[in-house]
Amino acid sequence: YQAGATQGMQAGGMQVGGTQGGYQAGATQGGGMQAGGAGGDGYGTYAYDTTTTKKAPAPAPVLQIIPGMPNNLAEVTHFEQKLPTEPWLAIQGASCGPSFQVPQVAPERATDYNGVALPDACFMEPTTNPDGKHHVQVVGDWGGLMHHPWNQTVIGPLAADHRDRNHFKQHYRPYVFDIDDFAQAKVAEQMQKRAMKYDPDYILNVGDSFYWGGINARCGAPVSHCSDITGQWKGAFEDMYTGPGIDGKQWLGVLGNHDYGGYMFSAAWDQIIAYTWLRKEPSTQRWVIPGQYWKVTAKYPDFAIDYLFVDTNVFDTWLPEADQAHNICSKDHNVRGWGCGVIGPTSPENCPKWFHNLWNAQMQWMSSALGASIADWQIVVVHHPPEGMWGAKDWKKLCPQYGIDLIIAGHRHRQEIHGPNSESNVLRPTAYIVSGGGGGITAENTPEHNGADDEYGFVDLTLSKEEIKIEAISHSGEIRSTTCVTPRQPGSMQVLTGGPSMCDGIPPGPRPETLPPDVPYGGADQPYSPNGGVGGQDAYGQPWGPAPAPAPWWSAFNPFAPLVDRLRR
Question: Does this model's pTM top 0.85?
Answer without folding.
Answer: no
